[in-house]
Amino acid sequence: MPDRYFCVKMTVVIEEEGILPKKQQIEKRFVLIKAKSGEDAYEQLEKREHEYARPYLNPYGRFVRWRVECYDDCYETDIESPADLDNPAGVEVYSKLSIRKNKDKAIWDGKF
Asked: H-type helices in 26-92, by residue range?
């Protein structure tokens, strides 16, 4: 099976050395990765977690790291090659279906 492009949604916690804040700052991060399957995408990213958490010195002289807390979702895209990213109409990299109450309260008549 050829590699496909997957978008992995993760939660990243921003930690500052020596600080225990009452509220944590987090980031929802979406990473596009080439993999054989969703499981393979997760495995590849887990192997590189230390790269995401590499500390750096902020302007106040404290070390900061962005630590991957969890992997929230994985979406297989329709991207087949990097050239697909040049599509003028854009390219879908993530989608999540859900259900909500119908706001329109109208039936679509099938016309455009």
From this structure: 38-47, 49-52
What sign does the dihedral 2-10-27-20 (CA atoms) show? negative
CA atoms within 13 Å, Cβ hemisphere of 111: 1
28: which 2 tokens? 């929802």
How many domains, the chain?
1
Determine the structural domain holding residue 48 and report its residue range: 4-80
Mean pLDDT value across residues 3-17: 95
Name the percent of the chain lying above pLDDT 90: 72
CB burial class (10 A; 0-12, 13-18, 19+) of residue 34? middle
Answer whether residue 67 is part of any domain: yes
What is the reported pLDDT for 109? Answer: 83
